[in-house]
Design a protein that fits this description.
Blueprint lengths: L3 E2 L4 E3 L6 H4 L12 H7 L22 H13 L2 E3 L5 E10 L3 E13 L8 E2 L6 H14 L6 E5 L7 H8 L5 E6 L2 E8 L2 H12 L3 E5 L1 H14 L12 E8 L6 E3 L3 E3 L7 H7 L4 E6 L6 H8 L8 E5 L4 E6 L9 H14 L3 H8 E2 L4 H9 L5 E4 L5 H9 L10 E3 L15
Parallel strand pairs: 6-10, 7-11
Antiparallel strand pairs: 1-5, 2-3, 4-5, 4-9, 5-11, 7-10, 8-9, 12-19, 13-17, 13-18, 14-16, 15-16, 15-18
Helix pairs in contact: 4-7
């Protein structure tokens, strides 16, 4: 059973800092050229607790400076620990082109760590050794959970929604406007009966990792390092900080992650036809990267129930590929690896893991990158569904690397968990 517990969060004092200036994107979506901007935005920006100022510093640091920074910010009163434990309910309100305003409600809690073999916590993608080694250095240095792991639960009847909504209606809820186009509302849930109802509901359900596979597996490694001969379930390192949301609520937005082939020859029209027999192809003009979203919504999205993708080599022509058959329970991200990347570009799974393919955070970024020479062909996909994610994880399988992008991201800095700090 999943063990979800309230905790005493370490939080910014909103009377001392502007929360909109100190929260930061999750460390793994901060681009190389964005680190300095976040560092300079505010001397207390949360990125200073997650990343070195430059990428080159990462290889040699032991992150001792982060521990010192945490302690200094607490001594200054910039970070304050709540007196009583609770869940921390977060509503994120955002605009979706063509859809309108959406809101997603979820909450932060402390999750008892479980090995994957128990099938309580389920991954949907594989991890890489490098990022885990880096995050382990941070965890060893700070003994604190600085960035939450984003997890999903299944609540098709919205059983937990009224409990979360009631907490958000309290007058002391904090509102942070216009951070990356997302409005954040954060409130504490401390009612013992409500906490028990939430914990009991989730105890009966598996949890699927949406974002944070590397952090979760790092937490398992750290737990095993710290355990003695007789494990103590109440020890702080037996749990980790998570954000939990209902995968099936309307505000749980699942976006595609597109691909950028970094090097190699660009397939010609004849080459595409030779390497992808049985695929139909439509070509259309693509004047600039700014036009890619509309082009995909108009021409690729209608093929979402079929094997389909789009290819863009930056020449001003967008190619839409599809097959006249139902996709069914197959995953297009897997077909893209097995048929498109393998046949048209000669890339196998090892080459992809070794960096032959990049994963831009948006279609616009992919389109810009291919036009700026960062890659040779951008490959665009339709989004997977929550049903895809839960079906695959229930089978004990994982998806290809970077298959899903759950939006909005959960920023770092809303809450920290530092139970092992005095």
């Amino acid at each position: 059973m999943a063990r979800i517990q309230p905790f005493r969060a370490l939080r910014y004092d909103a009377t001392r800092v502007d929360l909109a200036e100190v929260i930061a994107p999750p460390y793994d979506v901060v681009a190389r050229d964005e680190r300095g901007d976040l560092y300079d935005r505010n001397p207390y920006n949360a990125v200073r607790l997650e990343l070195t100022r430059s990428l080159e510093e990462e290889a040699t640091t032991d992150y001792a400076e982060i521990r010192q920074r945490l302690e200094a910010w607490r001594e200054e009163g910039v970070l304050v620990r709540d007196e009583d434990p609770g869940f921390y309910v977060l509503r994120q309100t955002f605009e979706v082109p063509g859809v309108g305003t959406l809101s997603r409600d979820g909450f932060f809690g402390a999750l008892g760590l479980e090995d994957y073999a128990r099938r309580i916590v389920r991954p949907h993608e594989r991890t890489l050794a490098g990022p885990k080694a880096d995050r382990l250095r941070v965890l060893r240095a700070t003994r604190a959970n600085l960035s939450p792991i984003f997890m999903l639960y299944e609540d098709r009847e919205d059983f937990l929604a009224p409990i979360l909504a009631e907490a958000l209606a309290t007058p002391d809820a904090l509102v942070i406007d216009a951070v990356g186009g997302v409005r954040h509302t954060l409130a504490r849930l401390t009612d013992s009966e409500a906490i028990a109802r939430v914990a009991s509901f989730l105890a009966e359900r598996p949890l699927v990792i949406a974002d944070g596979h590397h952090r979760y597996e790092t937490s398992l490694t750290y737990r095993d390092e710290r355990r003695g001969d007789v494990p103590d379930p109440a020890a702080p390192f037996e749990s980790t900080l998570v954000y939990l949301a209902n995968a099936f609520s309307r505000g749980s937005l699942l976006l595609p992650i597109h691909r950028l082939v970094r090097k190699g020859p660009v397939p010609t029209s004849d080459g595409w036809a030779r390497d992808l027999p049985g695929w139909s192809c439509e070509t259309l003009p693509l004047a600039s990267a700014d036009d890619i979203r509309e082009a995909l919504e108009t021409h690729l999205l209608p093929h979402a129930a079929q094997p389909s993708f789009a290819a863009d080599d930056g020449s001003g022509v967008l190619r839409i590929f599809w097959r006249e058959e139902a996709l069914g329970e197959r995953l297009m991200v897997r077909l893209l690896e097995e048929e498109v990347l393998a046949r048209a570009f000669g890339l196998d799974a090892d080459a992809i893991r070794d960096g032959a393919v990049a994963f831009p955070r948006s279609a616009e970024r992919a389109a810009r990158d291919v036009r700026e020479g960062e890659g040779v062909v951008a490959l665009y996909l339709n989004a997977l569904s929550p049903e895809d994610v839960f079906r695959v994880t229930a089978e004990g399988a994982v998806m290809p690397q970077k298959s899903t992008f759950f939006a909005p991201k959960i920023p770092t800095g809303l809450v920290f968990r530092a139970d092992e700090m005095a």
